[in-house]
Specification:
CATH superfamily of the largest domain: Response regulator
CATH class of the largest domain: Alpha Beta
Strand order of the largest sheet: 2-1-3-4-5
Number of strands: 5
Keywords: DNA-binding, Phosphoprotein, Transcription, Transcription regulation
Number of helices: 10
Strand content: 5-15%
InterPro entries: CheY-like_superfamily, NreC/VraR/RcsB-like_REC, Sig_transdc_resp-reg_C-effctor, Sig_transdc_resp-reg_receiver, Tscrpt_reg_LuxR_C, WalR-like
Radius of gyration: 18 Å
Protein name: Response regulator transcription factor
Order of helices and strands: EHEHEHEHEHHHHHH
Helix content: 40-55%
Pfam family, one: GerE
Largest sheet: 5 strands, parallel
CATH architecture of the largest domain: 3-Layer(aba) Sandwich
GO molecular function, one term: DNA binding
C-alpha cells in the first residue's frame, strides 16, 4: 500500500484507448502517483490487477464482455485492500448503485478535472472515499426516507457510535475520525465493530449506504 515515501500505484481500466492515453499522460505528471498498467476491458483489468496488485484501480463501467460492475466485484473479492474508483460518463441508478454495492470506493464522472481525479486517487490511498457532487446528491435523494414508527437498528447506537457513523458516511478515514472526535484509532475500530454489529452490516461501505438511506449523514 502507498505511503508518504511510495507512490500510489494505479491501474487504468477503460475500453477507450484515447481515454487511457490521456489519463496516463496527465496522472503521470502528478506527484505521488504511478501508472502501473492499462487494460481495455474487464477481463484484462482483472488479470493485470492480479499481476500488479495496484493500490487503486481507475475503473470504467461500460465495457464489452465483463463490465466494470462485475470486474469491481471480482477484484474486491480477491484483493479487498485494493481501492476501486469508478470513472464513468453514466449517472443512472442501474449502474451507480450496483457498482457501489460491489465494493467501489469512490465514484467520479469523466467530466471531473484531472486534479480532482488525482486528489481522489490520493484520498483513496488514505482510506477516504470521494463521491462526485451529483452522485452524492442522487444517493441522498434515493435513500432519504420519512421517519417510521417501527424501531430502526441505528436507534440502538450510542451517541459516540452515531458520531462515528456520520463521519464514515462522509468518507472520513479512521485517522480522520479519530482526529475529529479526539479519540484513538483503536477506539474508532472498537466503535466501528460495535455499530457494524448493531446495524447488521459487514463493512464501511454498507454502513455509509445505511446512513444515507436513513438520512443520518445530513
Amino acid at each position: 500500500m502507498a505511503s508518504e515515501h511510495n507512490p500510489v500505484r494505479v491501474l487504468l481500466v477503460d475500453d477507450h484507448e484515447m481515454v487511457r492515453i490521456g489519463l496516463a499522460a496527465v496522472l503521470s505528471t502528478e506527484d505521488g502517483i504511478e501508472i502501473v498498467g492499462e487494460a481495455g476491458n474487464g477481463m484484462d483489468g482483472l488479470r493485470l490487477a492480479r499481476e500488479y496488485t495496484p493500490d487503486v484501480v481507475l475503473m470504467d463501467l461500460v465495457m464489452e464482455g465483463m463490465d466494470g460492475i462485475e470486474t469491481t466485484r471480482r477484484i474486491m473479492e480477491e484483493m479487498p485492500s485494493c481501492r476501486v474508483i469508478v470513472l464513468t460518463s453514466f449517472l443512472d441508478d442501474e449502474k451507480m448503485y450496483p457498482v457501489i454495492e460491489a465494493g467501489a470506493f469512490s465514484y467520479l464522472l469523466k467530466t471531473s478535472r484531472a486534479t480532482e481525479i488525482a486528489d481522489a486517487i490520493r484520498a483513496a490511498a488514505r482510506g477516504q472515499s470521494v463521491l462526485e457532487s451529483q452522485v452524492a446528491s442522487k444517493m441522498m435523494n434515493r435513500f432519504r426516507r420519512p421517519p417510521q414508527a417501527v424501531a430502526q437498528p441505528h436507534e440502538d447506537l450510542t451517541e459516540r457510535e452515531m458520531e462515528v457513523l456520520k463521519l464514515i458516511a462522509l468518507g472520513k478515514s479512521n485517522q480522520e475520525v479519530a482526529d475529529e472526535l479526539f479519540i484513538g484509532i483503536k477506539t474508532v475500530k472498537y466503535h466501528l465493530t460495535n455499530l457494524f454489529g448493531k446495524l447488521g452490516v459487514e463493512d464501511r461501505t454498507q454502513a455509509a449506504i445505511y446512513a444515507h438511506r436513513n438520512g443520518l449523514a445530513d
